């Protein structure tokens, strides 16, 4: 139970990039909450009843009312708890629109191409996904210049909405680098994002919720093994 009588529960899964976004937002705002770990193959009745449409994590339950979808949860946290912690979205409507645009770009371009590069059925599809992924990262390098205005984060002096959207991918990026030597934010190609990634990862609020890289590596190996087994069975 939080100060002021607000009760917050977060339904998540430790390896989920999307659940991590909610954790990052709550941590950056300094909010306390009850965390409930969900299993992908054994979903609780609370999850199914709280998110009957998608039946997926994350779900934030605030005083008994569920809020679904990761970036909607981040916006909700910022709007409801305006007097707590730093703002995640800018006060100016135009700058808020820009932040939402780039957060959507992270999902629509970077994350989508990353999934293709990792899980596509053919090597040609994987190669095309990697090409699109690297192009998206280069575009985000320019977005950082636009949004940060020469300050440390996309959100300016403090981590904000776009930092959360992109920062949630750092754990998977670090696991990919450790597992197969692929570096998503290469200092030789996108130096600003490489520096940003290090800076964001060193925030105490981020370190408090970021999963262990070695555990992510093992989780990725298990996922690839299951995918390979399923493909051979077909």
Describe the structure.
The chain is α+β, with helices and mostly antiparallel strands and 234 residues long. It is built from ten helices and four strands. β3 (59-62) and β4 (65-68) form a beta hairpin. The longest helix has 27 residues, at 93-119. The mean pLDDT is 94.
Distance between the termini: 49 Å
Strand content: 5-15%
Shape: globular
Oligomer: single chain
Strand order, largest beta sheet:
2-1-3-4
Mind summarizing the main beta sheet? 4 strands, mixed
Average pLDDT, to the nearest integer? Answer: 94
Residue stretches low in confidence (pLDDT < 50, at least 5 long) are none
Structural class: alpha+beta
Residue share in helix: 55-70%
Strand count:
4
Total number of helices: 10
Radius of gyration: 18 Å
String of helices and strands: EHEHEEHHHHHHHH
Structure keywords:
58% helix; alpha+beta; 234 residues; 4 strands
Give a topology summary.
Layout: E1 8-12, H1 17-28, E2 34-37, H2 45-50, E3 59-62, E4 65-68, H3 70-80, H4 93-119, H5 123-148, H6 161-167, H7 170-180, H8 191-201, H9 204-207, H10 213-233
Parallel strand pairs: 1-2
Antiparallel strand pairs: 1-3, 3-4
